[in-house]
């Protein structure tokens, strides 16, 4: 099976006033075409750093990073990124915010506008195209961010704790929404999260990172049927998988 994303023996060291700090050490992982992989770990372990390496926003100190079997030398069209905050421009409408990448990437505007409307339909916001971000809930704003990420039809989606700022009910709603979108689009996804339940609910595999310097210490296949409903959160098998992951984070 071909890989949408590959990291091989990747390390990253930061230079600080106190000397060098090793953020990542010998990180190796793969995300196959069409696979949903969650990356789970404690704060400061380097999860977001892995995402930035995959997005071409940071260079690795050592090792190799490839997207679609090509070395990553900077941001590229193969990837789309969603961060913790949607970072919408408040003076632009929902439709205009989704269209923002069109100019940067040189997309034909008429085609991009049509695709933006189709994506707003996909994320359930077609009726809000003319609204402004302040008129939307936090969950709706994040859905705008997801639509914007999909505008140029990237092969790999990189999501950095996109639900972290939302309340519990909104998070559950967006878990279902993201599962539905992924089921229709079948993109490859690397999803960063602190939430064990979120990781198990969404992913085909969950990778666990150690404390800094971060490395992969478990690769757990999530053999749960799809589509997954919120009722599964109380399923015995689901809870057993969560418990298997939780042992990495138990207090000494």
Task: Describe, in plain words, how this protein is organized in 3D.
The chain has 252 residues and is of the alpha/beta class. It has 2 domains: 3-78 and 155-249, P-loop containing nucleotide triphosphate hydrolases (Rossmann fold, 3-Layer(aba) Sandwich); 88-153, no CATH class. 33% of the residues lie in helices and 27% in strands. The chain has 8 helices and 10 strands. The protein has helices at 47-55, 94-98, 100-105, 109-122, 138-150, 168-185, 196-202, 236-246, and strands at residues 3-16, 19-32, 36-40, 62-67, 70-71, 79-82, 156-160, 188-193, 205-209, 216-221. The strands form 2 sheets. Strands 6-7-8-3-9-10 form a 6-stranded mixed β-sheet, sandwiched between helices. A 4-stranded antiparallel β-sheet has the order 2-1-4-5. β7, α6 and β8 form a beta-alpha-beta unit. α4 packs across α5 and α7 crosses α8 (236-246). The chain starts with a strand and ends in a 6-residue tail after the last helix. The model has no long low-confidence stretch (mean pLDDT 93). This is ABC transporter ATP-binding protein. Keywords: ATP-binding, Nucleotide-binding, Transport. Belongs to the ABC transporter superfamily. Residues 7-236 form the ABC transporter domain. It holds the Pfam family ABC_tran.
């Amino acid at each position: 099976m071909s890989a949408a994303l590959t990291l091989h023996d990747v390390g990253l060291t930061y230079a600080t006033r106190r000397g060098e700090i090793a953020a990542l050490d010998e990180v190796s992982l793969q995300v196959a075409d069409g696979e949903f992989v969650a990356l789970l770990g404690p704060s400061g372990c380097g999860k977001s750093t892995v995402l930035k390496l995959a997005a071409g926003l940071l260079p690795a100190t050592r090792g190799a990073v490839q997207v679609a079997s090509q070395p990553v030398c900077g941001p590229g069209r193969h990837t789309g990124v969603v961060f913790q905050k949607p970072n919408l421009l408040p003076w632009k409408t929902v439709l205009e915010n989704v269209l923002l990448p069109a100019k940067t990437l040189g997309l034909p505007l008429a085609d991009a506008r049509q695709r933006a409307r189709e994506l707003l339909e996909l994320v359930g916001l077609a009726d809000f195209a003319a609204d402004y971000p302040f008129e939307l809930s936090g969950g709706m704003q994040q859905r705008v961010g997801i639509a914007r990420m999909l505008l140029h039809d990237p092969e790999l989606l990189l999501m950095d704790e996109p639900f972290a700022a939302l309340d519990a009910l909104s998070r559950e709603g967006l878990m279902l929404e993201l599962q539905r979108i992924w089921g229709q689009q079948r993109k490859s996804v690397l999803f960063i999260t602190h939430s064990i339940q979120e990781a198990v609910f969404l992913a085909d595999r969950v990778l666990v990172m150690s404390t800094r310097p971060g490395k992969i210490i478990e690769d757990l296949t999530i053999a749960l049927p799809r589509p997954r409903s919120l009722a599964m959160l109380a399923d015995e098998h689901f809870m057993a998988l969560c418990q298997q992951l939780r042992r990495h984070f138990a207090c000494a």
